Amino acid sequence: MTVSYNLDVSSTSLIAFLKLQLRWRGSVWKSVMRELLIFSLLFAIVTSIYRTNYFLSEEQRLFWDNFSALFDQKLDYIPLTFMLGFFVTIIVGRWNDIFLNIGWVDNTALLIATYIRGNDEKSRILRRTTLRYMVLTQVIIFRDISMRVRRRFPTLETVVAAGFMLESEREKYVELNLKYNKYFLPIQWCYSLLYEARAQGKIGADVMLNELIKSVGDFRRGLGQLCNFDWVPIPLVYPQVVFLAVRIYFFLCLIARQSVLIDGEPPKDASPVYPFVPFLMTSLQFIFYVGWMKVAESLMNPLGEDDDDFECNFLLDRNLATGLAIVDDCYNDSPPIQKDIFWSAETVEPLYSADTANLHMNPQIGSAAAYEPQENEIIMRPHIDTNDDFEDGCDDVEECNPRRLPRGISVVSVNRNCESRTSLVSRRNPGPTIMERLRSQFGGSKVNRPGKLFGSSQFSINTAIGDNDIGSCASILGELADDANKASQGLLTPEEFTGSPRRTPIDVLTSVPEEDEEAQKTRTSVDLRKWKEMVDNEKKRKEEEDEKKRKLSRKEEEKEEEVVDDKEENKTEPSEKLCVCTHQSPAESLPSLDRISLCNHLTHQLCNYLTHQLCNHLTHPTKQWSQEAIVVSKNTAAFVLYICSSSSLFSNVAI
Known about the structure:
By secondary structure, this protein is mainly alpha-helical. About 55% of the residues lie in helices and about 0% in strands. It is built from 23 helices and 2 strands. The chain has a two-stranded antiparallel sheet with strand order 1-2. Helix 3 (about 60-75) packs antiparallel against helix 12 (about 235-255) and helix 12 (about 235-255) packs antiparallel against helix 13 (about 275-300).
């Protein structure tokens, strides 16, 4: 039977220790008491022979002393601690495996009650019989591996009388002519019932049937493990060696622990208490070592009849009663669903009893959750790996494996809780400022380092006020911090503080375009001169490429203008024939027409030409009117005005 003592050790106190040690059933005292009494009796007999003058003379007693001292020195040759440690570890592992496979029907009973539907008598019989067959399998197996169950059910008739099996089932079980065990038969009956339930539609889907069969199979597999543990125990030689070594050890102690010599000599002050010291120490050693061995003896067969063995009979009764209640009494009998008491509550806070309401609780909080940074501001930047600074055959870090400057820097302010002790300490002693940390990491001088940090076409950082000089992150932050300090000290007016153009807004620092690994060069190098030369060369190369592109675009535009001009000249040839040259007078170029007809004709031609030129100007607003068109327009207008001024019919001209 299992000994439960968890209530006695619910707290670590002297009273709990005394309660634990004063238990008798299953205790070490009960295990070693008989053997300890036998050992004490033998020790007393040997002591009487050794210390009385009736059996040994002085010479023989001296020989005994030397002999016992030699035995006492060589007792360590028996590795008792080593042997017991390994043996008990193996035994406890087997004991745990047996307990895990002992068999519980709760999960399978819940599946049966859920998947096999129906309130009719046939459905109830299917559910109850399936569950009972599982428990019957456990009874048949336990009869063969547990003495307590065997004493309870010595024959199959007693199993029928107990209610685990029907008479018809016993006859069916006996009819099977098989010289091996028939543990599988009730499980096969169980599978047949499950298939019948599926065929009758009481199980809704094949997936449910598979789940039920899998659960029953797991139950049978655990019982099979128990049979294997009972069939193949730990090899006999191991417990023989351990048990024999412990008992021989203390048998030798009967001779080796009789002497009271100290460094080979008897004590100077003789006392009647001295002979009891070896007996007391040997008895304590006997209790510890033999008790340790009894642990292994008790756990070797947990299905036996010791005080700490498993309650197999209780397990059988419990599985049958609980399983039948699940599949029949509690089938489809759920309470109506209602709103719980926390339905409209903002927070869920269950109540405690008055005795436990004020007890301290340790909630599940991460061990590092209470950490708070000491600084008021945190600098966030990419990681720089310094493990691979040098390559094979290279001594210069800058040339072989340069480190990369962070593409951007983010400054995060720490939002502290007012109740935090760490926050109060950090406010009293803020430590170095953010600019001091930036200058210490990226260099102390404010060197403008134009380059690829903000050079991508994806982000524009030019402001509306002139051309800005783009500098490094540290220099920009440094200027902003210096201006803020001056403004706080009254050395800088608000207009100067807010009105001066910045090289780059500080919020652009976090918007840095991505760069490939080839283009991303070293920017945290100590030698800034090399870095600046590299950036300048890159900048010059880009400027040359841009200049070439601009020249090509200009040539293409000039070619397009020449093509357009040629087209315009071809279109304006009729008008130019009517043009009056600047070195000729209007009368010389006058055709042989009357003045009124000629005036109307020229006015019409002038309007058409001006309309054509206006359309070309609207279509190509960047192109200038050709010089020839201007000359023609001026001459034509002058000629028209001359004709109109010399004509008496000016009012009849349609302009």
